Amino acid sequence: MPFTELPKEQGLRPRPISKPSKKETHVEEILGLCGQIEKLALCKRYKEALELFEILECEGDHDVGAGTYNALVNACIGSKSIRGVKRMWEEFSDAGSRTFSTMIRASAGLELISPGRQLHCYAIKMGVGLNIVVSCALIDMYSKCGNIEDAQCVFDVMPKKTMVGWNSIIVGYALHGYSEEALSMYYEMRDSGVKMDHFMFSMIIGLYARLASLEHAKQAHAGLVRHGFGLDIVANTALVDFYSKWGRIEDAQNVFEKMPNKNVISWNALIAGYGNHGRGTEAVELFERMVSEGMAPNHVTFLAVLSACSYSGLLDSGKEIYRSMRDHKVKPRAMHYTCMIDLYGWEGMLDEAFSYIKDAPFEPTVNMWAALLTACRVHRNFVLGKFAAEKIYGMGPEKLSNYVVLLNIYSSAGKIEEAAAVLQSLKRKGLRMLPACTWIDIKKQQHTFLSGDKCHSQTKAIYEKLDELMLKLSDLGYFPQRRKSLLPDVDEHEQRMLLYHSEKLAISFWAD
């Protein structure tokens, strides 16, 4: 079974290997095979590494060494071979802490909690259960398998809590959406005097973004500089992303411009920030600057800049950028097709938008049809909208937003019976319009609003302010869509959510 030469740029030039006969097998050749396995795994040629191990296994029992077993485990993870992981676990002997941690991380990578627990027990039996490397691997395994309580227990009994240990448990909480618990662990770590690293700063900034806490993120920014990571590319990219999402584009740009080195993720974060806040022209200009400075755009870059063009209605720029993907050797994916459908759709060019679905070299996705459906709602194309909706339902996703778009199309067209049928379908499937939730920070205090709720202490003043703002908007020609006259079956709760959206309530509170 021949193997081709490994990439020269990695400095690895193993000779082609053929299956050895039993007569030719000797210690040097076994060692050579082990070395080949490790090199193949290092180059992420996992399938070939496992195939080569099959050859070695045919020659009888050989002690391949911990390094080779570790490489094989990595190969199993990379190729998602559950069977391979189990076999490695059954066959390894004389395991040290490094091999245990590798095996445990293999279980984590494949989300196999049962062998992970067995390895935990065996590690304790072998006397390495409290080893720092093994403990961190166990925390990672339990977290990825969804058992954060056991991860916390492992962390609690660690005799020495290192930076890696703290990172592991905090990432575990963050991974499952326990942002406040993750921050609580971060504060505990900070108070314990453990030295911070750039990875921790970038993760904490992301948590503050999730919790919409601008003031705390600024403090993390200051801490980043204070601890000597002010020029770190990972942490600063997280800051660019955070400030962009918060609409603090100038702050994001300031951080970006001060970065001595920028990678494609840094550029993508700022381009997306401009685009998400309606500054499409600046997003396009930044994209052009990125290319002129020699940074190769990737598929995420094109997604960000095409989304910016769509959001700002820059049809000509979007068309030109989409065509340039070929020049940059980036193959358009479904997400890029969706952007173009959205771009043409918002301009009312529904035939052109539909052509991207018909001409796609792959099966159109739900998001592609949903983009066309939304465009049909905006431009009241009942026939094409119904066709798009039927395609979506035929693909099986029970996504509330698609039903709502179709409901709006029928309502706007005065199709009372069809709209009522959509509502009945929603009720039959158990789908209900859940209230949206919006947070706003005012004077360092966070306020939370749900659509249509009246739980805030200043509810009366907020609703009065909202009515005042809506009256001013009506004078300018804006009237919200009201389905109640067409659809008497829409209950009062849902109607209130439509008229008193959480974002409207938050803005009214801020403006009062």
Automatic annotation (TrEMBL):
List the molecular function annotations (GO) for this entry: mRNA binding
The source organism is: Escallonia herrerae
Protein family according to the UniProt entry: Belongs to the PPR family. PCMP-H subfamily.
The protein, known as:
Pentatricopeptide repeat-containing protein
Please give the residue ranges the record annotates as the region Disordered.
Answer: 1-23
Q: Mind telling me which Pfam families this protein's record contains? A: E_motif (PF20431), Eplus_motif (PF20430), PPR (PF01535), PPR_2 (PF13041)
Q: Where is the signal peptide?
A: none
Segments of skewed composition (Basic and acidic residues): 1-12
* PPR repeat residue intervals: 162-196, 263-297, 298-332, 399-433
Q: Which PROSITE patterns match?
A: PPR
Q: Where are the transmembrane segments?
A: none
Q: Quick one: a GO biological-process term for this protein?
A: RNA modification
Give the record's keywords alphabetically. Repeat, Transit peptide
